[in-house]
Amino acid sequence: MIAPWETARELQKPPLTLTGGRAHIGNRFPRTIGIVARLAYGRLREARIATDPLLARAGLTREEMGDAQRRLRVSNQMRFLDLAAKALGDELLGIHLAQSFDLREFGLLYFMLSSSDNLADAFDRAARYSWIVNEGIVLEKLLCGSHLGMRFRYVGVNRSCDCHQIEFCMGALVRICQRLIGRGLVPSRTRFMHSRKGQTRELSAIFGADIRFGAPADDIVFPAGTDHLPVTGADPYLNRLLVSYCEEAHSRRPAVRGSFQSQVENAIVPLLPHHKARVSELAPRLGVSRRTLTRRLECEGRCFSDVLEILRTQLARRDLADDRLSISEISWLLGYSQIGAFSRAFKQWTGKSPREARSAQ
């Protein structure tokens, strides 16, 4: 377990990166403390599955897995989780991992939440300091009346490439809330942006009866009255001390930029089923003009049509791996009004029809 003061000290050191042979302060790609990646790594070793090939494909190393102080790229963690889930044959790997680890592994963030006065205060802390654990996910507290919730927004990484990391994060949030108040608590509504078909008893037991996949946002909302539920063992003195550590780290937080392409991709996904994945729709959502959107993509060597095609290819491959989704449903999710149009496009991308690709997988 990482001591909270050690975590704060590490976060105060701005990372060095090399560009053009010169070192400079900055962090272009979002990073994470890598809890879920290391949990998946441990699960693979327990199953005696060769890990080196999976690590290499994900851009990770054994040394990184063995050193809990080393931060990983969020995109590499997401890729590794997907590979691990397939190797283990566990389509709910992120959710399963969230139910079986010591919550104190979150370090400074967990101790700050567990010393807060009530759940609403704990959510305020989580929203402001979640970057300590994962720079690629921004938490936004939701408060509608006495309904308390949290929204998860991806920054600098492609949300469409992930399902296991977000399921781990939201499953862990439910466990943390239950631990903080010292009793069971089930969400009243849970939404995920990625697609899954069907709802199992296992999912309902964790996330409640109202679960929606393929939603426009990732968020979780708890029943009315939970906002003022007291935290068992709240310690205002410890909380003030930990907040001071976090505020000092926050003032030295390195900029996380990611790519503009990832911002465009994350904005495209919820528009696809509605046939609105167009520059004219995206630009206002990203707070830029159509001309600026086009120019910023060109600076990264992309044009909008390329980004849209590549994204659709990635989503199609991912969804075809889930045999609970029919070809027609996948076609609709990708914004095609007819299966034939999707099949022709997919064959042009991959040389195979969607059915052939699914059979091969």
- Counting DSSP E segments of at least 2 residues, the number of strands comes to 9
In N-to-C order, the SSE pattern is: HEEEHHHEHHHHEEHEHEEHHHHHHHH
Mean pLDDT: 86
Number of helices: 18
Number of domains: 2
**Beta-strand content:** 5-15%
Poorly predicted runs: 1-27
The best one-word shape is globular
Strand order of the largest sheet: 5-6-9-7-8
Cα(first) to Cα(last) distance is 39 Å
Largest sheet: 5 strands, mixed
Structural class: alpha+beta
Gyration radius over CA: 21 Å
Could you explain how this protein is built, in words?
By secondary structure, the chain is of the alpha+beta class. It folds into two domains: 248 residues, no CATH class; 101 residues, Orthogonal Bundle (Arc Repressor Mutant, subunit A), CATH 1.10.10.60. The protein has 18 helices and nine strands. It has a five-stranded mixed beta sheet with strand order 5-6-9-7-8. It has a two-stranded antiparallel sheet with strand order 1-2. Helix 7 packs antiparallel against helix 8. The radius of gyration is 21 Å and the shape is globular. The protein starts with a helix and ends with a helix. The N terminus is likely disordered.
